Each structure stands twice: as structure tokens, then as C-alpha cells.
Amino acid sequence: MITTTIPESRGYIGKSVLYMAMELSNATWKLGFSNAERNRIVTLDAGDWIALSKQIDLARKKLHLPEGCRIVSCYEAGRGGFWIHRMLEENGILNLIFDSSSMEVNRRRRRTKTDKVDVDALLRLLQRYLNGERKAVSVVRVPTAQEEDQRRLNREREQLIKERSAPSTRIKSLLALLGIRMKITKNFPSELEKTTKDASGNELMPQLKAELLREYKRYQLVVEQIKILHDEQKRRVKEEKTQVIEQIIGLMLFKGIGWQSSWILVMEFFLDGENLKIGAN
């Protein structure tokens, strides 16, 4: 299990530390460096690790920090996921991922949904946190690659359920234009074939029927994929004898917690390397 070791504040007071904050986007990474007295801001192409390494060395020299000083970095949780964190840690850099929802926002300035905390603010937040202000921000726990992979099945299923509503809604809308009420079942194509007129008695146009059938095929494709994932969940519960599966089975014993709820609870909330106590006295 990968866990970010939260350093004690006393280990940083009076010590040489290079603080690094990263503002990430698809195209560029904006880096902020500090020695707690002076800041240095640079921008480089996203994912350019060679340039990042060079900028770290340059920042250390520009900020007059000794070679081999401790480097602590941070960035805001987002679509970038955890691969950047793992790369930083593999290169000997202690990294913290800050929970976006826990960050302080300047109330005098309206913040749009797409705004990010700027790199200067991240630098200040990182130093405050390391100097003992643990309530200044929440640090995200980083799962292992294996834990992330175990969550894929459930998250794919949730995404497919969202996608299923698009063709379903489209079919219902098209039928509503004609004043036709018809359930979307496996018999939908045959029922549609039997329907020759709309609610006004006008003949159904061939292109409209063809569109309805195409939307139904899209709907069925998603339904079939959801079933495949559901069958895979059943297979894992039946065949795999892991702690995670035992936790899922244990939760299902409780009244009011169903199959999918048990799976989601374990994969999204209890998959942290700690034991979930089921049926404790």
C-alpha cells in the first residue's frame, strides 16, 4: 500500500527545504519554488520530466539551498490522478496531494468552477501545513496501483449507467413527438414494427423508425456491457477469496445494504488497507 508519510512540523523548522507547488494543466505545468523566504515561478511543458529535474536543480541553486536538501512538493487533486505523485515519490520527492474542496478561497473574488488555486497560494498552503497547521488543508490518501485497478470495474459500471440514459431518453422523446407510449424492452423492435401509425393516425415515416431502431441498438449495447460487468462481479465474489471480497460479502449480510451498495462502499471507502470490521460486538 502506498501511503504518504505526513512529516512532523518540527522536522522542517530551521531545516533546508525546497518547497515546490505544481499547477497542472493538459498543456503546461506551472511550478512554484520557495525556500520559505523567496519564491521562484517557472512554466514548462506538461509531462517534461527532464525539464522538471533541471528546474528543481536550478531552483535549489537560485534559492541558495544546499545540494541534497529535502524537497517537498504538492499539487491540487484533479483529473491528473496519481501517476505524477508516484513519479515524484520514486524520484525521492515527498509529495502531498491537496483536496480541492478543503482549500481556502478568497471570498472577495468570485471563483468559477474552472479556476484553480494559483501556484503562489499552493506554496503558502504547503508551508503552513508543514509548519503544523494541519487544519489548513486536507491531504488526499494515495491508493496503490492495484487498489486503483480494483475500483475500475465499479467505476466503469457507474459510467455505463449514466451513458444508458442518453439513448433511452432519446427514444422516449422521439416516441413522445408521435404520441406513442411504448416501453423499452427486448421486444421493442418487434413492437415498433407492428406500430404503423402515430397517435393522430398518420403513417410512421421510415426514417423515423430507422432512427428509433438505431437508438435502441445503442441502448442495448450499453445494457449488455452493464450485464457483463455485473456477471464479472458475481464471478469474483464466487471465486476470489480476498479480504476485499470478504468485506463485500460481510456488508451484504446487513439489512438495507444491497449488492451494489456493498461493492461501492468497500471499493470507494474501505479500500484503504485497513480492516473493515463486520458484525462487531
From TrEMBL:
Q: What is the top-level taxon of the source organism?
A: Bacteria
Q: Where is the signal peptide?
A: none
Q: Which InterPro entries does the UniProt record give?
A: Transpos_IS110
Gene Ontology terms: biological process: DNA transposition
For molecular function, the Gene Ontology terms on record are: DNA binding; transposase activity
Name of the protein = Transposase
Q: What is the lineage of its organism?
A: Bacteria, Pseudomonadati, Pseudomonadota, Gammaproteobacteria, Candidatus Kentrum
